[in-house]
Fold each of these.
Amino acid sequence: MTVKPILLQELPSDLDKTRLPQHVAVIMDGNGRWAKRRGLPRILGHQRGVDTLKDLLRCCRDWGVPALTAYAFSTENWGRPLEEVEFLMTLFERVLRRELKEMMEENVRIRFLGNLEALPSSLQDEIARSMNETKENTGIQFSVATNYGGRQEIVQACRAIATQVQEGKLNPEDIDEELFGHHLYTHEIPYPDLLIRTSGEMRISNFLLWQLAYAEIYVTQTLWPDFDRKEFHQALLNFQQRERRFGKV
Ligand code: IPE
Ligand code: IPE
Ligand code: MG
């Protein structure tokens, strides 16, 4: 039996380890364009994008970023051609099944954010299994936004809160930002302090609308399948140069 060496890559020396983001969120965009530029079908871009995400997760672990959230499928992405949607659903399921063992070995805690009930039932099973099996893991907090929409998330939180009021369990005066946050899919993780979007698009595309209120935004022209550790290093350097004022002077 060969034992796989754990390649722990150290934090680059120009980064300050006391000022790393505590939660990085990524909009993994540009898979289709990456494939198109190579004359390949879009789905191959998605397939390649999985490797990028896997390496970023490792990199966060190596460098000491404790939480990573990736946008994998938006509530609007159902509007894509059926063939692409079906490919993505199958890809998610296949990757989850394949990676669970390694996530356990690496102490990864995985969560899924979004309206999961609308996903294919075999994918829901795989999601439930991975969340359940990794729930005691104490390493990196890894979240995957799947059938996720920021507006949908806010609406479902309002509905849950309204129900509690209706049942007499909650007074409207007790609804504040903290309580609201408890009803979001992200209730167990801190809000992101850095948002990275690849492929140059300057928009949020319905991602974590509430949670990103004060996140620093970093956009790179690089397409998602080409986003590597060097790129992540650049994003972190840029983050560390920002002055975060939170409305103050
Ligand atoms: C992001 O890449 C992946 C998903 C939305 C699932 P795209 O598929 O949006 O790639 P582009 O933006 O068309 O290049
Ligand atoms: C955002 O990318 C959604 C994901 C990365 C999953 P899109 O490609 O769907 O966003 P738009 O259409 O450019 O806004
Ligand atoms: Mg896109």
Note: The first strand starts at residue 24 and ends at 27.
Amino acid sequence: MNPVVLLAQAMPLDPGRHQVLHPGAPQGSGIESLYWLIFLIIAAVYVLTILSFTRAGTRAHQYATQPLPVIENEAGDRKAKWAVGSAIGITVIALFIVLIASVVTGKKVEGLTSKNPVTIQLTGHQWWWEVTYPNSQADQTITTANEIHIPVKTPVVLLTNSADVIHSFWPPSITGKRDLLPGYSSAVWFQVDQPGTYHGQCAEFCGLQHAHMGFSIIAESLDQFQAWQQQQLKPAAEPANDEASRGRAVFLTHACLMCHTIRGTDAGSRTGPDLTHLASRRMIAAETLPNTRGALGGWILDPQRIKPGVEMSPNPLPPDDLQALITYLESLQ
Ligand code: CUA
């Protein structure tokens, strides 16, 4: 079978994951163009190098089988000098083209500004992303984790920071990398034109679970974005039945409330992700697991088995308590 088809079957493409070559934003398109320019230059250099080696190899073979006397060959020397000279000239020109294209791409990627952007604070933690939509009124501030909702065709500015070590924000199909430095805020501007879910990954080694520090940018229409905002602004849903009530009691009487916030309850710690609307998220544990009952249960019982080194400690709850807790958490739309 065709090896490309075999490869595609072995690695089914997860739509949107790490696709530098399928940009969803003007910033990403600029980076893609630069990629292709450098790729084509390098491909041409590779082909020329291989051709020259092949030619030299064939000639050396001819000389070896029919040794020629060494003679002065002025025409040959001139040719060689001309060849070396033009190779150096082409190299310098190619490097300048790449340099200029890099500067132009950098300006394009960094060039977006707006008086009225969607402002989002992004804080890196070992190993998850805290996402805050600040507002001068505290009760209008949204805090979520690992999923960055934005409206399409609207400039967005991410104000980055880190709570511990250096992380790096990298959504390959949207824009380039930006390091998140503790105590130092920087602004990343971008705008997504195509609705969709774009995956990203921490791109700076930040400890044991660096590879499990994913996030998503969810670009949606302005209406959908505003509906999401309104939903996120609400306090947590009240338990709808006895099972969920018991689950909330389990949450509030165990270690959960030492680290997490659920707005509308006594849980108000900011050490771990805000769980007020946990059930509205697609994934848990920084995009490590799907947000399903089974995955959530496994994560609560023994997060160290799934992400060794993570801050969350195991919670050996009795089965009934665990089921009630999951029911409650999955009701937090
Ligand atoms: Cu955070 Cu790597």
Note: The longest helix spans residues 26-65.
